[in-house]
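Give me structure tokens for this 192-residue protein.
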Amino acid sequence: MSKLLTRLENEADKKYVLYVLAVVSFLESVIFPIPVDVFTFSLASVKPKKWVKFGLIATVSSVAGAFFAYFLGSYFFNLFGKQFIEFYGYQKHFNHVVKLFDNNTFIVMFTSAFTIIPFKIFTLIGGALKVSFIPFILASVIGRGLRFFLEVYLAQRFGKRVTDHIIKRFNLYSVIFVLLFIIYFLFKKYFM
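Here you go.
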């Protein structure tokens, strides 16, 4: 991975790097196990004047991947998911899960789009459950946009040293953010 990042950083001026960022961002929303964040941080830290372009490409491509994953999840669920649920008698439980996800689509998708929670799982499940599409896409655009633009802004603003620090501790910072997010909602629900 470090060899790939070093190569991308060394060739950040080349046009193909933008395509690599787009493809990685798209695939990361569907199946790709490597978070696109290491690419956005690295590229914006070595080419700070292109930070907006990197953020935009990552956001648009990731949301396009979410769109694709939604329909992929829906397609495969229609092929064999329904039969699985019926065979095991899970229809009542499944309907409950669908209702919970559908009633909270924006919050669920925003949280998975902005945090370390695997976005790809929720994009595929959202399609399989056929959750409301508008909140699904809107939350994906806002969550991914905030995440990627925050990353590229920090990288261009503070440079390579801070970028390396954040990449090494990315999971820790993400967990802290998720905990603060949960605390905020719990506080709002029970004390306001």
